[in-house]
Specification:
The chain is 4% helix and 42% strand. The chain is mainly β.
Length: 137
């Protein structure tokens, strides 16, 4: 069973807050369920935990930036950098937060890429990583 957790980017203070712990996010518009505060406000950007961890045992959330390898049976392995996006019913790795394509390749399914090992969270799109247009390393 996958652990359900969320975090939020607080726009005003430019800080990331874990929502599965008691937080100072108690606003009138919040919903509290099973100890999780979920803010419904334009002041927050909510991100869900994917249920997966990277090669360094770091939790992977929506909005995280990952360096990862897509392995090929002909030894044409490629290094990529991508953003974790929830798309439809699954977590994907997209080229940019609003663009799934890597040249001729579309987005990649996070669980498949992560299952091959070698993925690494290097930051997220809100904090310490500048997003660049050059994704293929």
């Amino acid at each position: 069973m996958r652990e359900i957790k969320f975090r939020a980017w607080v726009k005003k203070t430019k800080t990331m807050v874990d929502l599965y712990q008691t937080t100072p996010l108690a606003l009138d518009a919040n919903l509290q369920q099973d100890g999780i505060f979920i803010p419904f406000s334009e002041e927050f950007i909510i991100m869900q935990f994917s249920g997966l961890k990277d090669a360094n045992d770091k939790e992977i959330y929506e909005g995280d930036i990952l360096d990862f390898t897509v392995f090929d049976c002909l030894d044409n392995d490629k290094q990529y950098r991508g953003c974790v996006v929830y798309c439809g019913s699954r977590f994907m790795l997209w080229n940019k937060p609003n663009d799934e394509f890597y040249g001729s390749d579309g987005g990649f399914e996070l669980d498949e890429v992560n299952g091959q090992g070698g993925s690494e969270v290097i930051g997220n799109i809100y904090e310490n990583v500048k997003w660049s247009d050059s994704k293929v390393k």
